[in-house]
Amino acid sequence: MCPLKVTSLLTNIFPVHDLTCFSAVAGSIFTCAGILILLFCFKIKISWHKCLSFWESKAEDHRKIEAFLNNHGSYAPKRYNYSEVKKITSCFKNKLGQGGFGIVYGGSLDNGSQVAVKVLNELNGSGEEFINEVESISRTSHVNIVSLVGFCFEGRKRALVYEFMPNGSLEKFIYEERSENVRQLGWPVLYKIALGIARGLEYLHRGCITRILHFDIKPHNILLDEDFCPKISDFGLAKLCVKKESIVSMLGARGTIGYIAPEIVCRNLGGVSHKSDVYSYGMMVLEMVGGRKNVDAGADRTSEIYFPHWLYRRIEQDEELQLIGIMNEEEKEYAKKMVMVSLCCIQTDPLNRPSMTKVMEMSEGNLDSMQIPPKPYLYTSSRTEVDSSAVELAYSLSAVLSAVILL
Question: pLDDT of 132-142, one tens digit each?
């Protein structure tokens, strides 16, 4: 009904002296109704735009992935269709684990080979992780890099088929109960694992035709075979660059809080490069050494909250490391060597960190020839003692900042 007809109807109902007041009220009602209609239409438009943008993005991801697979057919491993993936996993019967981007199932190929199949979430991620994984691992061949057997890309169905690692991830072996004096893995095995990871990273940084930066080195992404030989996995955040390129550009932070190099979070600390993987490696090995997270708010003494700080003080004062499970002089040497190398790796300035080639040389070299590395960033040159609560606060603020940037 149009406004003129409504006004005419109101004239017949209400007296003339009340019409002016009522016209004002009616005008307000019509105005409010118009605004509500506009808001409703605007909401529908926004919802439609979001939905359209989402599916356009997925369609663009599909085109990018297909174009990549066509251009890199000679490098790409075997391509499976989804029905084959279901057959390999016996209809996804044996679940091995779950991560942020999908679920991992156990399976077997026709030749009897055991595999692990990561089925990616259909509506999670931009497709970049899938391309990174296939492109990165397809360019590698190394005993300390997990092998990608094949992949599935069929519509919105995506899966990655890896060689099976019987002992799972390093993560489940290194975090010890603080009251125990026996480690799950002895010091010779821990040292062997640390050295193997270093060899794998050195290969990614120098041994490939294209340098590969992993950007997510952590215990969860290190897999162990039946002999506890470590293999670097999960290249979803990896970045490829030319060998001579030392600094790479990134639009945002990538990695896991607790292992992210400082320059990735705060770019004025230095350029992002292969040295960012070195930092993550150092933080990870320190957790292997301590059998604990590097930050432990539940530690018995405040001086033990930030583990690298506690270790550095003991090294600096030439005190016993008091680490779990050291039984003899050989194991003591393994432990101290791992600590010294790790403290070199976690220097805040990337220029002060060794390359992975140097890390291997130090790890395999003579302990007596190693010098105490410079003090980490959380120390100040004017003080020999640093309040542990301040260290904890600084680390916590760094973690929060990392989380905000990652969002």
Answer: 788 888 888 89
Query: What is the rounded average pLDDT for all residues in the chain?
Result: 79
- The sign of the CA dihedral 35, 36, 37, 40 is positive
pLDDT, residue 1, reads 55
Which of 7-21, 112-126, 221-235, 292-306 has the weakest average pLDDT? Answer: 7-21
Distance of CA 268 to the CA centre of its chain: 22
| Residue 151 and residue 161 in contact, taking contact as beta carbons nearer than 8 Å | yes
| Phi, psi angle pair for 206, to nearest 5° | -130, -25
3-state secondary structure of 134: helix
The answer to whether 132 and 237 are in contact (CB under 8 A) is yes
| Greatest extent of the chain over all pairs of C-alpha atoms, in Å | 107
**Nearest alpha-carbon partner for 365 in 323, 324, 337:** 337
CA distances from 130 to 65, 82, 122, 185 (A): 8, 16, 11, 33
Q: Name the residue among 9, 38, 7, 12 with its Cα closest to residue 23.
A: 7
* Distance in Å from the first CA to the final CA of the chain: 50
Question: In the numeric block, which tokens belong to residue 386?
Answer: 């640093």
Q: Which CATH class is domain 78-163?
A: alpha beta
Q: Which residues are catalytic?
A: 216
For the chain, state the CA radius of gyration. Answer: 29
C-alpha atoms less than 13 angstroms from C-alpha of 8 in its C-beta half-sphere: 5
Distance CA 253, CA 264 (A): 6
Q: Is the CA virtual torsion 266, 267, 269, 275 positive or negative? A: positive
**Segments making up each domain of the chain, as ranges:** 78-163, 171-406
Q: Report yes or no: 321 and 336 within 8 Å, Cβ to Cβ.
A: yes
pLDDT confidence band for 389 (50 / 70 / 90)? very low
Q: Is the pTM of this model over 0.85?
A: no
Is 118 marked within a binding site?
yes
Q: Cβ distance 286 to 312 under 8 Å?
A: no
- Asked if 346 and 308 count as a contact pair (C-beta separation under 8 A), the reply is yes
pLDDT tens track for 227-255 = 999 999 999 889 888 766 667 766 666 78
- Kindly state the tokens that stand for 1: 């009904």
CATH number of 171-406: 1.10.510.10
